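Students often ask why we bother encoding 3D structure as a string. The short answer is that it lets us treat folding as translation between two languages. Here is a chain of 71 residues written in the first language.
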Amino acid sequence: NKKMLYLFAGKQRRLSLETIPKKVRELLNERENARQNKEWGRADELRDEILKQGYTIEDADDGPRIQKSAE
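And here it is in the second language, the structure alphabet:
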């Protein structure tokens, strides 16, 4: 049962996955794998790295939501 990845540009406007830099997409995938394996510390480290890349994540019941951080 794979959860969806929701991308937001704020105010419910969806981002295209292609607009997310490759490095951030890779970090997102790695973070989801860590969460599925209940490696919470690693997932937190990856979330922090994603934040450094300029994106925030909100974990929801139906999957993570990512958006560009406010500048």
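Translate back mentally: Confidence is low (pLDDT under 50) at residues 8-12. Keep this in mind for the problem set.
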